[in-house]
Amino acid sequence: MKREFEADFTLKVPPSREASCRNTGYAFGGATRGLVECAGKGCLNQCDREFRQSTNCQMYVSSLISFSVKDSVVIFHGPVGCGAQAHLIDYSVKTFGARRGVRMSGARWFSTNLDEGDVIGGGEAKLRQTIIEADRRFRPTAIFVINSCAPAIIGDDLDEVINNVQSEVSAPVVPIHSPGFKARVFSSAYDVVYHGILQKFAFKPEPYLDYQPFFRSDPDYERKVRDYEYQKSRTVNLYNAWSIGPDDEAEIRRLLEALGLNVRIFVEFKEPDEWRWLGEAALNVCFCHVHDLYFVEFLKKTLGMPYILPNIPIGLSATRNFVKEIADFFGLGEEAERLIAKEEGELKAALEPLAAKIRGKRVLISGGYLRIGATGLFANELGLKVVGFRNFNYDMFGNKLFGELEEKIGNVSNVISTQSSELLNELKTLKPDFAISHPGIGIWLTKAGVPSITLFAQRFPFFGYRGAYALTRRIVRTLANPNYARNLAANVPLPYKEKWYDMNPYHFLVAKDAAVGAANAGG
Q: What span, in angstroms and rounded, lies between the C-alpha atoms of 189 and 63?
């Protein structure tokens, strides 16, 4: 299926992903074939739940990019509780900034601390005062103002406050419209943050300010211009995400630089001034296009920059395709084949004694669809039996990947769910030996007696050949000693009644019109 993406960058706020051209779904119970077919028809987001325990908040997700901008300040406009997660982020910002050679100030944040009176009378005055105080106290590179549910409900005009106060502060003030209730698909937050960024910053360097242009009076003028344009023609921008660690970035940089390419990584752990060099590259590449597609499409429309959307480079085939797709763009296909042959030969020799210890083990993989799909391909390469996938959300941009997965591992369980009740119910049927899961999900799996390995973590490598070896070692160690999960399951009661486990895990799925029949088909 041809992948198409359209966005109106002139809107005040981009639509949530379930309401955009992506038609992203957030509820599905079935198997891979039904999932892909439903996404291809554009009907996937017609499935809903009549009951849910909880869901993820796009406001929290939007804060991750905002905090990762070097020397930024984040303002949570809302009650003080809508910022509590910032305490958890502070350590990661400092530690993994340092691992990248970037000295980060940590998670610096304010709350407008709206109370009952503000909900009645409005919180715009508090927001204005907080912006001025944040700029005065820290002189940040940027101030990200993140809207929460309460001010969005009462109608505080975030943009009007920012426009009026901008002349009184030195830092660019970026509006982030991400109240949790506005989107069922929490990854909508990525589009919202990028939408704020693209309104406030430029992505081309300015002559005399950012660099010294070449003068025609210089005897070496033509050579300097040729050299500059050649370097630009060999430069690729890679776009990172909070889930991508410094080891992952270093591994892919190593592989692409071995081909003679110049590699730059944006936008996290950079100052906004560094973003002005985004346009001085030949190609944009998303590590994870669930995260960055909105932004690279904007750069294509405004600067004419091409982009490609390879799969996340986890495992042999996904890394091979990632490197090859970039190399082919630059006419380096033969060089890439030689590099890949060498790297794969070394990795396969190193993996064989490890893979022999885990071959045939059953694994459930849960998290974002691009990551779990690439991880599923690698699990199959290791000889593991993938018994199911659990996506947080899904759209047509995963169809090529999951079409390949169906060919290789079959029409296995493949659902869209963020509900712990559904996960625990499904474990009774799937009976995995272990799981690879998004952080925060592993606790439920472990309490149910299923050992769990994190799907991503900035402290561990996952990407490329070195990441594949490191991930395999973690799988071997986990399966060698599953006693923690077994002991926890034997001593910690789960919160659901026994009769729930006798029901269909997707009992609460309902149709907005007539899509649930297709959603449940093939399951």
A: 9
What one-letter code names the amino acid at 40?
G
For the cut 60, the answer to whether the pLDDT of residue 459 exceeds it is yes
Handedness of CA 469, 473, 479, 485 (dihedral sign): negative
What is the rounded CA–CA span in Å between residue 24 and residue 26?
Answer: 7
Intervals of CATH 3.40.50.1980 along the chain: 58-183+187-200, 221-309, 355-520
Residues 239 and 286: their CA atoms lie apart, in Å, by: 5
CATH superfamily entry for domain 355-520 = Nitrogenase molybdenum iron protein domain (3.40.50.1980)
DSSP 28: B
373 SS3 class = helix
pTM of the model: 0.93
Q: How far is CA 472 from CA 162, 276, 379, 401, in A?
A: 49, 39, 9, 21
Give the DSSP per-residue string, 437-487: E-TTTHHHHHHTT--EEES--TTS--SHHHHHHHHHHHHHHHHH--HHHHH
Tell me the C-alpha distance between 168 and 260, whole Å. 46
Q: What fold, for 221-309? A: Rossmann fold (3.40.50)
In degrees rounded to 5, what are phi and psi of residue 47?
-90, 140
In this structure, whether the domain defined by 58-183+187-200 belongs to CATH 3.40.50.1980 is answered with yes
Local structure of 349: helix, strand or coil: helix
Mean pLDDT, residues 102-123? 95
The pLDDT, as a whole number, for residue 513 is 57
On the question of pLDDT at 519 being above 50, the answer is no
